[in-house]
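Thread: 2-phospho-L-lactate transferase, structure

OP (GT): Posting the sequence first so everyone is looking at the same thing. Length is 320 residues per the record. Can we get the structure tokens written out before standup tomorrow? I want them in the notebook alongside the other entries.
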Amino acid sequence: MRIVVLAGGIGGARFLAGVRAHARATGDEVTAVVNVGDDVWMHGLRITPDLDSVMYTLGGGIDPERGWGRAGETWTVKEELAKYGAEPTWFGLGDRDIATHLVRTRMLNAGYPLSAVVAALCDRWQPGITLLPATDDRLETHVVVAAEDGSGDQAIHFQEWWVRHRAALPAKQFRFVGADTAKPAAGVLDALQAADIVLLAPSNPVVSIAPVLAVSALRDALVSGSAPVVGVSPIIGGSPVRGMADKCLSAVDVECSAQGVGRLLGARTAGGVLDGWLVDTADAATDVPGVRVRAVPLWMTDDDATAAMVRAALELGGVG
Ligand code: GDP
Ligand code: FO1
Ligand code: CA
């Protein structure tokens, strides 16, 4: 069976570790289509946080506490840059991580598409699944906030909002710059067409899943495809398990609940994307019109627990 997973960073990576554990037992093939909206240029390097979180997690190189960057990291280059006053000083690339960024940036500058760069990096990390960016084109999430000098609104890059301001500036709008013209990356449409099921990882719905679905040809292929689409709720009992998804949801006027996120994604039969919505047992009362809802424990405490979630999602999609 072929399983396609739409994913962001930390939540996506942990979910994919469970999908891979399931697939190792069954022989299923797994393709992850990962958000690139967080991607940014800093210090002349192209940074792709969600792709790297997935690659390092599945390749055994992640720092498990942070959920981004490398284990056993040192920060000499970051400290040296700060001594030059080289901005941004609020964002840090570790010394080991910089090697990945040098390889990526060199390949992009030589003309390789991001999907080819990801494949080359995965030759080293061997994630055990096919890892694809949602698009090879520029697509960046920008956040509209009130200008600090009171002169109206301004758009800042997602990383500035998330890392520098810790999502504390009220977000008025999220813009996926470039989404209008972005095409699915090489391999994405083929994967969706061949899929037996599409799963939405329990990733941030507003800034991880939405930018993937903002690639219109990708969304169209998912919506018009024959594979069932099952989402897994990132919200348990009214709060994000980790991170600041609540801040993102309030910005788009969506209740921070499994039901709120399920309704935001919506039924495929009513202009949305979902056939099934997997929620935690704490949210068993969830109702999403037109969508089959099932409640099971959704805590990704280890790969076995996550693989059990994956089996429940496959059953909900009718392919388990
Ligand atoms: P990011 O790109 O690094 O922010 O990561 P993602 O967007 O892929 O995932 C972040 C989301 O994962 C958070 O909003 C959490 O709600 C969700 N999450 C983290 N751990 C768990 C878990 O154990 N269970 C569930 N259901 N969701 C989780
Ligand atoms: N997150 C931080 O909170 N501070 C950082 O300095 C930081 C650096 C960083 C470098 C490379 C990378 O791939 C990720 C990095 N992140 C950092 C995490 C990250 O940018 C965000 O958590 C995500 O984009 C949200 O998914
Ligand atoms: Ca992300």
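GT: Both are above now. Quick notes for whoever picks this up: The radius of gyration is 19 Å. The chain is about 40% helix and 20% strand.
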